[in-house]
Amino acid sequence: MNKNYKYELKFKVRDYECDLQGIVNNSVYQNYLEHTRHEYLKSVGLNFAEMHTQGITAVVARADIQFKTSLKSGDEFVSRLKVEQEGIKFLFHQDIYRLPDEKLSIKAIITTVTVVDGKLQVSKEFKEAILK
């Protein structure tokens, strides 16, 4: 794994994720990014569903995605992320690279916030786990 990233997850494009042009539909990339974030949270000891039952909800506030190189059915790729805090926001810098050539497919910044017991604020548990 590239040392600039904190986490990576490998995938393979499935036929039904592609549109009529034979490339991954743009909306599917958000599924890849979300799955990567959720698996990352698990890897640092946070369970997205359990957080919600404890009154902590992490929500996407903004998604900025730059599409670089299209993925096609059968392509293998890796989704990588790093995260930083900016005020009450957590910015997930997420990039997807086609394998094996490491060609950049998308570059994204997903901005999330946490709502604790109905109030917009930084969750101490969330912050401590993801910024280790």
Could you walk me through the main structural features you see in this protein, from its secondary elements to its overall organization?
The chain has a single domain, classed as Hotdog Thioesterase (Thiol Ester Dehydrase, Chain A, Roll). It is 23% helix and 42% strand. The protein contains 3 helices and 6 strands. The chain has helices at 26-43, 48-53, 124-130; strands at residues 7-12, 56-67, 76-86, 89-99, 103-116, 119-120. Strands 1, 2, 3, 4, 5 and 6 form a 6-stranded antiparallel beta sheet that branches. A hairpin with a 2-residue loop joins strand 5 (103-116) and strand 6 (119-120). It is elongated, with a radius of gyration of 15 Å.
Summarize the structure in short.
The chain is α+β, with helices and mostly antiparallel strands and 132 residues long. It has helices at residues 26-43, 48-53, 124-130; strands spanning 7-12, 56-67, 76-86, 89-99, 103-116, 119-120.
